[in-house]
Amino acid sequence: MPGKPGPFNLTFNTTHTVNNIVRISIAFLCFISLFLNTACQKEKGCTDPKALNYNPSAKESDGHCQYPAVISPQPVQLNFHLHQHFGTPEFDTATHYLLPSGVKIQLSQLRFYLSNVRLINLDGTEILIPESWILVKPGIETFPIGTVTPGKFKGVKFLVGIDSASNSGGTSPADRPAGHPLGFQSPSMFWSWASGYIFVRMEGSVDTTGTGTPNLPFVCHVGSNALKREVQINFTDTLSVSSGVESFVHLKVQLDKLFDNVNLKVNRNTHTMDNLPLATQIVNNAATMFSEE
Amino acid sequence: MINKFSVFSDGLKFSILAIGLIACSRDAELQSPNLSPYSIDIPAGFPSPDIPADNAMTQNRVSLGKRLFFEKALSIDSSISCASCHFQIHGFSDPKRFSLGVGDSIGVRNAMALSNVAYQEDFFWDGGVPSLELQVLAPIENPLEMNFSVPQVVERLKKDPSYIYDFKKAYNREPDAYALVRAIAAFERTFISGNSPFDQYTYQGKTSALSASALRGKDIFFGEKAECFHCHTGFNFTDNRFQNNGLYSEYQDIGRARVTIKSSDIGRFKTPSLRNIEVTAPYMHDGSIASLEAVVQHYMSGGKGHPNQSPLIKPFTLTLQEQQDLIAFLKSLTDESFLNRQSLQP
């Protein structure tokens, strides 16, 4: 079986062959000479390993590195998605609800503010979402919080109430455009006689006679800097906020908790300053009514 | 004929030109608000009031504010304006103990006088509001006063082209809450009162401005027996603080505590300025004292002894003549030029 000639399987014959050897040697020397000559000049190219056209053999930068286009992550919209429950069912203003104390109530108004929303990074640091003021009303589930840079988060913190700077810093609904959460609301969420926001506004009627029909009105308007409350929710699964995708923090709001340790039969009204114990109980309760959903 | 026609024609041309010019100047005015400044006349002995950076005083702002101060459309049934409870001849206070709101609702505190309101740091008897601009919201929304809402007031004003024009001139914006509260505040900052006989005597070198009785009363006012001057101090005769003057042993209206939620503030109310005090009866936060004579009697009695009562309120005695002298001094704080100033009238 004739073997294939290998690259170095050369056969040399006669003087013709000797001449060829001399020629090849001269050519080889010329080549080496050329190579050495080139090697003495340092090779130029892109010397930055991060560049697209990085040249590992380049010893000297030619000033022409090319880099990938920098795409900074665009902030995306973050919202609360809230399911407001009273007991098991979802809350509405028409239903008569039976409190665990056996008292029947109807809530014609129930609105409250959340503010100062912060996402908790995986390393525990926090990112404040600027100008995050949310007025939670019945019958609505999606509430815009603000924009946030994409990332991964392990929890969320927020205030029930309004941050003190926005609450008593000298601005009022008159300084906000129509439709702004801190602008004028109907029913009003601002005390014009004491220049501050009503953090929790609930009004309705309560059955004080045991007939099963709510008969007496109750009015609870709670606010003031001292009564804002901090809430922290730790996510079971990391919240991934991705570029170009609107994100949601899903929370369940157990509104019946507002009435824990509140005896509405005998203690029906507070405008905060005139019944501070009831106002304090309500905001303390409000801080416990949020859970992850 | 030709001449007459020619004259008529020229006159017509001139009229058209004039109308054109007026129209142009109106347009130009609307494109950029007229910011010709309004300079407050600061009386001798008075400091300059602090003006918020976002509400510089201009002629047009003050004019708009004046129009709104007398505007009954601010109330739900268009029955009352700011001026319905703040009368210039009474130092912009109300001679009624409690002012009447819409539908004759009766208020719960005596309407405060507005003399020199530009110098106040907080507003209402309990100081619940930190600026003159914010103060405007409260009477509009109070169910016992105008019982209306600011957005609804704005909707009403927007229907009046002359208000659209005036708001544009003043703040370069359509009628809105932002400009509404600022315009009224700008007008109220012109309520400067500093030309009473006391001022003429003290700051203008008119030694005959005070009677002998008033001069004796002045010594009592600034003396350590009556001690009036400790709280009613400075050019505006107020310490701008909140004091319990011993009016009651128990307070139905808890005053400053309603704002601060501190029991130590129960029964404390703002020390009012004594400027034009002669014409701002009745007195105290609830208008419960009808005359200056009775006010002096209250302070001589040493108060009812509430736990928060100021230690300065303690019994003292003045002769009848001394009481009359003290009241003569208080009346020397009446500034007739302010109570009748044309520029504050509609």
Describe what is shown at a glance:
The complex is a heterodimer of chains A (293) and B (346). Chain A is an alpha+beta fold and 293 residues long. In chain A, 15% of the residues lie in helices and 36% in strands.
Describe the structure.
The complex is a heterodimer of chains A (293) and B (346). Chain A has helices spanning 14-40, 164-168, 276-286; strands at residues 44-45, 60-61, 76-85, 96-98, 104-121, 126-128, 133-136, 142-148, 151-160, 190-191, 196-206, 216-223, 229-241, 247-254, 269-270, 290-292. By secondary structure, chain A is of the alpha+beta class. Chain A has two domains: 15-61; 76-292, no CATH class. In chain A, the strands form three sheets. In chain A, strands 4, 5, 6, 7, 9, 10, 11, 12, 13 and 15 form a ten-stranded mixed sheet that branches. A four-stranded mixed sheet of chain A has the order 8-3-14-16, with no helix packed on it. Residues 1-15 of chain A have low confidence and may be disordered. Chain B has 346 residues and is mainly α. Helices cover 37% and strands 1% of the residues of chain B. A two-stranded antiparallel sheet of chain B has the order 1-2. Chain A binds chain B through residues 168, 170, 172-175, 178, 184, 186, 188, 190-195, 224, 226, 272-274, 276, and chain B through 124, 126, 128-131, 133-134, 136-138, 140-142, 149-151, 177-178, 180-181, 254, 257-259, 261.
Which runs of chain B of at least 5 residues are low in confidence (pLDDT < 50)? 1-24
Please, how many domains of chain B? 2
Q: What's the CATH first level of the largest domain in chain B?
A: Mainly Alpha
Q: In oligomeric terms, what are we looking at?
A: heterodimer
The H-and-E topology of chain A, N to C, reads as HEEEEEEEEEHEEEEEEHE
| CATH-derived architecture of the largest domain in chain B | Orthogonal Bundle
Order of helices and strands of chain B: HHHHHHHHHEHEHHH
Number of helices of chain A: 3
Proportion of beta-strand residues of chain B: under 5%
- Based on helices, strands and strand pairing, what is the structural class of chain B? mainly alpha
Overall tally of domains of chain A: 2
Strand content of chain A: 35-45%
Kindly state the percentage of residues in helix of chain B: 25-40%
Please list the strands of the largest sheet of chain B in the order they lie side by side: 1-2
Number of helices of chain B: 13
Shape of chain A: elongated
What does the overall shape of chain B look like? globular
